């Protein structure tokens, strides 16, 4: 019998101080439950849809723009509180063992902010927060390098040392 909890619970306090942080035991119990994990993925897809994103491959976490992306991206650009929710979702993906999903979601936002330039008001959050939720150090380095490659002007990139980024393979 579960108490009501957030859609994307974490081991840390969020904006709602009445919501209790998860324990490591609860996370392990969630991860072992097929029903809980199925609900988690449904909730993830629901939120992606709200943001104008579609999960195209549940195995890999691959994403693409949804049909309604223009309208939803307008919402993302207008209301910055969504960035806090996205950070929370990214952290929760890591807690629940979906590190590959984290990588795809961060890369999606880096592409939309730095390459496509469709989400200018999300760019700062993508670079300051989204990037650093990725648990895998190697994948995080790859994403920082990707961001550096597409950041303009490259000389103003502050999220990694330029000498190391130039040598990165």
UniProtKB/TrEMBL annotation:
GO cellular component, one term: membrane
Alphabetized InterPro entries for the sequence: OGF_rcpt (IPR006757), OGFr (IPR039574)
GO molecular function: opioid growth factor receptor activity
Residue spans crossing the bilayer: none
Pfam families per record: OGFr_N
Opioid growth factor receptor (OGFr) conserved domain span: 7-166
PANTHER family found in the cross-reference section: OPIOID GROWTH FACTOR RECEPTOR (PTHR14015:SF1), OPIOID GROWTH FACTOR RECEPTOR OGFR ZETA-TYPE OPIOID RECEPTOR (PTHR14015)
Family: Belongs to the opioid growth factor receptor family.
The protein's name: OGFR factor
The encoding gene: Ogfr
